[in-house]
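Allow me, if you will, to draw on your knowledge of protein folds for a short while. A protein sequence and the structure tokens that stand for its backbone fold form the material at issue. I would ask you to consider whether the tokens describe a fold that such a sequence might reasonably adopt. Thank you for your consideration; the sequence and its tokens are set out here:
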Amino acid sequence: MIRALISSTALATVLLAGAAHADDQKAPEADVAGNTGANGVAELVVTATRTAQPIEKVGASVTVLTQGAIEASQAVSIVELLAQTPGVSFTRNGGPGTSTSLNIRGAETQHTVVLIDGVKLNDPSSTQGGFNSGNLLVGDISRIEILRGAQSTLWGSQAIGGVVNIVTADPTVPFTTSVDVEGGARQTGYLRAGLGGASDKITWRVAGGFYSTDGFSAWKTGKETDGYQNRGLSGRLRYTFSDAVSAEVRSVYSKGKNDFDTFNGDSSEYGRTEELVVYTGLNFALLDGRWNNRVGYAYTDTDRENINPLRPTVPQTFDAAGKNKRWEYQGVFAFTDVFSATFGAESEKARMRTRSPSTFDPNPVFKTGKVGVDSVYGQLQAEVVKGLTLTAGVRYEDHDTYGSHTLGQASAAWALNEGNTVLRASFGQGFRAPGLYELYSEYGNLDLSPEKFDSWDAGVEQRFFGGKARASATWFQREADNEIRFFSCTGGTDPLCAPGGTPRFGYYSNVQKTKAQGVELIGEIKPVAGLTVTGNYTYTDAQSESGASKGKQLTRRPKNMGNLSAAYRWPVGLTTTVAARYVGKTYNNDLNTQVVKDYTLVDLRAAYTINETYEVFGRVENAFDKDYQAILNYGTPGRGAFVGLRARF
């Protein structure tokens, strides 16, 4: 950490040396949570550069979901909302709350960084250190930004597939209250409410939610339903001492309980997951606002357990906990109105414990592990000629176990024709050290090597008819080396299948090179007043480049997927929407012998604005009652109708 702070200080000194030649310029805010979500403006992007930037200056591929878009989707689960955007797919072992994998451009779940208000949600005790998105509900969220492609310079070396930043609501008026309630199929109910306000000195908000459903069988042919309940709380408080200094604290808490089935039939087991996210920080500006700074501390705590009530003497079948602590500094310095720098230092400490009690060993010793990572980063952004913005950055990390490494990233955005045409291109590197579970769990392997990645993309966006239509096309490619996979032990004399003479089901190993490439197409048109038609299509050729599965498609990654929706706002205040999602066929195993068929789902939505305070809404999910699977032999929901009321005071 000392080396990180010295490097950051040295970079800051270089910036100050050039201050005498800078114009009178304010730096963008160094607060990644930002205040841009509440106003619903989609033209500003925060996550790409960790400062608010006009979208035409961002070289990365990014999608912004504003509060209006989130409410119009009527989605309950975050992953279902994200799947409506380009390049994003997900799979889960049943209904909400079950184990969920989120994939961006064919990357693994652990290669995507998920954030709430800028705080990473990775769970060190999960199988590969990624975040299980199954418990993420649309709660008190005002904005989501989805970055596709490697974003390692600013967000850490694991940000290989992309970054999802979820921003909770931040009041802008003296007092505001919101209440949402809905219910429907499968005895489902969802209630969420929040209140808060903003004054010259204090901005605050607290919110809570409760979700419950009887669900459906997680096993495709199961006879019993698998339900889910979730309770959540969130809060934020910011105190402004002066125009230059403010302090804040933010927290999100959730507790979920989900029933699940085994890989071959019904089960009485259920799981509990408790998650806590806390952030506290101090923001201060120097040099009349040209140098904005943020010093913060972030903490995440995830506790999980599985219970089998049919095993009364040893009901617990799994117990795990993962904790992450991160101290950080970030600065943003404006040389001129077109030339700025973002730089910072981070020190992260993670630990995990896990065990699997059984009737043979009811109280096994916890497998534990811990790791520390110190890093510094710097990024320069400049509009070198009118409309052409170049961004370049570097990140240096020092890992307790795997030593130091340096990553680079560069992008360009060129806005032409008064911003109606935007050309984009980016390149980024990734480096993922093995996770604690991969190293120290009962399936661990201490001889693992780090994973390495290179990622490119390039695209064009064009607006037509005075902004009434737009279209974009993006090509992307990612190459990976030393990817870690679970190797099953099925006999033989492999010493890693019986370390110390104790047999085990398998272990983690560096077994794969992979390559993913494809195209994303996005379109939107407003042909007549009140009608908006949007669509996206993604082709992803994600395949193994090594071993027996060389040339085969990666498991559970559709080559083809797309979304299409048409929304019409009637003169009477009624909005109706037809939305369709297509997911192409996938394979359930590495050799591509187990096929999961393609499917198309159609949803119908309607919302009616009664007045400025109340809105009623309803939807029919899977309107044609499509029988489909996302994971072979696991259940999916049939047709379901839901109605609700939204109130804003």
